[in-house]
Amino acid sequence: MLDLEKDPINPDYYTNGIEVTKFIMSWGLNFNEGNVVKYVCRWRNKNGLEDLHKAKKYLELQIEHETMRLEGEWLNGS
To answer: 53-65, pLDDT tens digit by residue?
Structure first.
């Protein structure tokens, strides 16, 4: 069994109770949604405000995608 605190893929800021990756997968989140969760979970322990800006960017991308999908613009490229 891996020692998760020494695992470069799952450092301690990703494994507080549940691995962030496992949480994302268990909820079936897409790329943008998963990145929002990832960056919000780690911001205090890794890159601070930079990670919050990254989370915001992925949330904005998801909002844009969902808005376009609801308006029927995603598939026809308008």
So the answer is: 999 999 999 999 9
Residue by residue, DSSP assigns the chain as ---GGG-SSS-GGG-SSS-HHHHHHHTT--HHHHHHHHHHHHTTTTTTHHHHHHHHHHHHHHHHHHHHHHTT-TTT--
Amino acid at the residue 62: Q
Q: How far is Cα 58 from Cα 37, in angstroms, rounded to an integer?
A: 10
Residue 77, CA distances (Å) to 17, 64, 74 in order? 42, 13, 6
